[in-house]
Amino acid sequence: MTTTHASSDRRAWSLVRWVVLAVLTVAAVFPFYYMLMLSFVPIESLLLDPGRIWVAGQQLTTETYRTVLASTENEGQGFGLFLRNSAIVATACMVITLLISIPGAYAVARLPFMGRRTVSALFLSVYLFPTIVLAVPLFIAFAKVGLQSSLVGLMLVYVVQTIPVSIYMLRTYFETIPETVEEAAEIDGAGRFATMRHITLPLAMPSILSTGLYVFMIAWNEFLFALLFLAAQPERWTVSLGLAQLSNGIEVPKTVLMAGSVILTVPIIVLYSIAERALTEGLTAGADKG
Amino acid sequence: MTATTPVTATDTGATPNPRTRTKRDNRDGIAMVLPTVVIVVAVIVIPVLWNLVLAFQDLRLIDLRDAGPFDNLTLENFRRVFTGPGFWQALWNTVVYSVLSTAGSILVGLGAALALRRPFPGRGVLRALMLLPYVAPVVAVAFTWEMMLNPQFGIVNVWGQRLGMDRPIDFLGQAPWAMATVIAFEIWRYFPFAFLFLTARLLTVSHDTEEAAVMDGASTWQRYRYIVLPQLLPVIALLCVLRLIMTFNKFDDVYLLTGGGAGTEVVAVRVYDTLTGRFDVGGAAAQAIMLALFLAVALGLYHRILRRQEQRS
Which stretches are tagged as biased composition: Low complexity (chain B) (predicted)? Predict the structure, then answer.
């Protein structure tokens, strides 16, 4: 009696589980599929049959991608240029953030210096502080010193915004490297910086790479400050900003902009698939401590 | 004998004096953390303090060039924020938006984490797919949602009508729908975040207690309710705080989907509009401060309640 009860209970839950999985997977993936599908379709074809979820091969076109990537002189939408801008800003932001936060994270993880707790608290509060509070004064300040509408100003803001999370991820990793490894090197006569360069950094390389990728992704995806600083300068738009600005108008066919969305999304998906494991572990480190 | 002597010799050689070591640690630590502190102070702390001053100034964007840092001090900005209806409505919208999005994303994330708990072929792939909404660029996914929900050619409305809706719904431009849609979008984008944290915590939940409970005839529901859930509560509390803070300050998602129209104006969007649409620097700064203050007070209250509960138990 109890065993049949238990097995029907188990069967019911197993069903619930598969339904949950199916619904969530479709919900998570369908918008991306829809984006990809529409990006290969001429706008007339979408308007003719808006309900379909499958497009036959011969109706597909790559004209949307040509249009969206071509420069405005060539009757395109200039996403080639936007891609260049985004790549410059995100790469520079990644490199600078790592250069600054590696020593910072190391110090916070290892060295008992004066004010260590204050510094940690400062970084945490930066991470949680409303971005919009920064937006007003930075908008004004950058206008005054002439950094407004420059990629350098934007990069600076991204660096500051990504430093706290970068320090957090790196610090957790540094803390897992046993101190005895470093002490051994120091006993052999290596100074602090030699030890860091030859022992600690190589050991921390997986974490440094995934942190770097994460910083790159944040900078690539950012929208608010790009909008605040660069809205008036189409030749400096990042891909995110360009897509948002053009999708407000009615001039550009929507499926061309869908191609733009794919171009914006693909680099992120590629980076993410390279670093998925390291990223998820780095982000949730500490969650298991409650 | 000969083997031990050199070891003690190098030992004393490497750490000759604990005090110089501490001193060196202190000096190196400060040197290494200094660049971070300098840039954070310059680009965050000073601007935030300046925002405080701006909130007490009567300042328009056009006057900016000639205005000194402490010109035209006034309480007028706060008077307008407090007495006008717009800000309070926006604050209420922000509360509704962030509370419902947070609760929804944690619930859905919990469902996903539990459903993907036991291994099966293809679990890794599903897990990776479920994280897509979280990592993808917000502008791209917001635009895709806009397309899907479009009243003329969006797939949701087309299929909705085929399945019995009598007319298309303007999901992003009509009052009750718009707020529901931005909340749904937020749940969709952030359930993976909750899923990640809960999955990490589930790994450490011991199977022994659960197996024992099953032996004792506990149903699956009882197992989840009385064994698994209590162990997840600390992470759920952490997620609540993190997501509430993040959603409370959110700008991108609402701005991109509705532009703050149709009853979805949250404070962050209102600050942006005050700054760039009405060129009212002081008003924008005052509202931004109110947002931060409200958040700080709410967090303080939460912290106190939590401590009191801990003391009681």
Answer: 1-15
